[in-house]
Write a structure and sequence with these properties.
Radius of gyration: 38 Å
Distance between the termini: 94 Å
Largest sheet: 4 strands, antiparallel
Helix content: 10-25%
Order of helices and strands: HHHEEEEEEEEEEEEEEEEEEEHEEEE
Structural class: alpha+beta
Number of strands: 23
Strand order of the largest sheet: 2-1-4-7
Number of helices: 4
């Protein structure tokens, strides 16, 4: 009977230690005596301190359970000295563990409370995108579907990077879930370009996404405004598209070309009215922007010509191959001794070579053809036979009415192509060295 009384008394004393916080865990972040609670503005250090305190309490609970088990073993030990001794040792160990755990926490809080509340100081030289309240930085994700979930007071973005870092592009949507107004969900969307060290207020918007400005072709639904553009804008595009995404298809009013000269990237684009690179073309080879030192620039385009696009990387180092040769007959590069020819060497393609078919005069040296054929086929305009592409080049052949077609390999029979069929009169031919 004395064993039962001793166990009950000890159990009561340990249980009294936890009585004050018995109802505290009903809240999401309950107040814990000696630890406190959390709120939306709590930092990482406060979270660590809070859960460290919870672990102290859990340790106490484990000690209580262990003590209870020891007590039960003590009661049931009967007259066995060995079992009774083991049970006593278990209860003593439980009490000692609890005392040491609580004492260590009290000691830390008494000597230096900061030791129980660690803080994490961001490295001042570390780059990235952060939420800020003006003094504290919190890492910001590249996409946030609901701006309302951002901590109160942190609705400003700041972009930190070194002086050579790329600009940051931010799409701010008026509604949550990256949604705008209108049937396409893009009305009301604002796009900002944020340079290193700059900040941007998110205001009362619904959501946002970010992307670093990388080399590529950016589609815009508005016209150029300096080197940037207005209206909704796409992310970077670097490859051909047989059909431009519906939100931009035949609606693009301008494009931003962002080059990467440090990496040898200079970009160009040729738009077509219809999908599969057919229909009227808009040749993005403006005379003042073929190749220069501008890292980025904006060009207005005709919306109706933006159904598909060829995107290419100029090889401005001029080592794309051995040039392009034009022949007066189909498959002329296979039967050279029976066709007139004219070669355009790589040295002339600097950085783009433009010529009219009538100016491509054939050479018939050592060519076995009747004189009347030579008189009929003076130029490629008279007899557009075939084209041999001897390297990495785009050959853009235009025709009357603004039609064009882009080739990156031999053209075996010009009359069998879309641009040469149906008796179309060929227009200027562009040769572009590419990577």
């Amino acid at each position: 009977m004395n064993k039962i009384k001793k166990f009950r008394s000890s159990l009561f004393l340990i249980g009294l230690f936890f009585a004050e916080s018995a109802q505290a865990f009903e809240a999401r972040y309950p107040f814990i005596p000696g630890v406190g609670t959390l709120n939306p503005d709590s930092g990482i250090g406060e979270y660590i301190s809070y859960f460290f305190g919870i672990l102290i309490y859990i340790g106490g609970a484990i000690a209580l359970v262990s003590f209870a088990i020891g007590g039960a073993q003590y009661i049931m030990s009967g007259d066995s000295p060995e079992n009774s001794g083991n049970a006593k040792d278990r209860m003593k160990g439980s009490i000692l563990g609890l005392v040491l755990t609580v004492s260590s926490f009290i000691l830390i809080k008494t000597i230096n409370p900061a030791m129980a509340t660690p803080t994490i100081t961001p490295l001042p030289s570390t780059g990235g995108v952060f939420f800020t309240n003006g003094s504290v930085l919190k890492p910001a994700p590249l996409r946030e579907n609901n701006i309302a979930s951002i901590p109160v007071g942190y609705h400003n973005l700041v972009y930190k990077c070194n002086e050579n870092g790329p600009a940051l592009l931010v799409w701010i949507y008026p509604d949550v879930g990256l949604s705008g107004f209108g049937s396409d969900g893009i009305d009301g969307v604002q796009i900002f370009r944020v340079a290193c060290g700059q900040s941007l207020a998110l205001g009362g918007s619904g959501s946002y996404k970010m992307a670093f400005e990388t080399p590529g072709i950016y589609y815009c639904l508005g016209n150029c405004q300096g080197q940037f553009c207005t209206g909704f804008m796409s992310e970077a595009n670097l490859t051909d598209q047989k059909e431009i995404p519906e939100v931009f298809k035949n609606k693009i009013r301008s494009i931003r070309i962002v080059n990467g000269f440090s990496n040898g990237i200079a970009l160009g684009a040729i738009f077509h009215q219809d999908k599969d690179f057919t229909g009227t073309c808009s040749n993005m080879i403006p005379q003042d922007a073929r190749f220069n030192s501008r890292e980025s620039y904006c060009i207005d385009v005709l919306p109706e010509t933006t159904g598909s696009v060829n995107i290419f990387k100029w090889n401005y180092k001029l080592n794309s191959g051995d040039g392009v040769t034009f022949y007066s007959t189909p498959h002329g590069y296979r039967t050279g001794s029976y066709a007139g020819y004219r070669s355009v060497g790589n040295d002339l393609i600097n950085p783009v070579y433009v010529i009219n078919p009538s100016a491509i005069i054939f050479d018939y040296t050592n060519v076995d053809v009747p004189p009347e054929v030579k008189r009929q086929c003076v130029s490629f305009g008279d007899c557009p036979g075939s084209v041999e592409v001897k390297g990495k080049y785009l050959v853009v052949v235009s025709a009357a009415g603004g039609y064009c077609e882009v080739f990156n390999q031999n053209i075996s029979n010009m009359k069998g192509t879309k641009v040469g069929a149906q008796g179309r009169q060929l227009g200027d031919i562009y040769i572009i060295p590419v990577r």
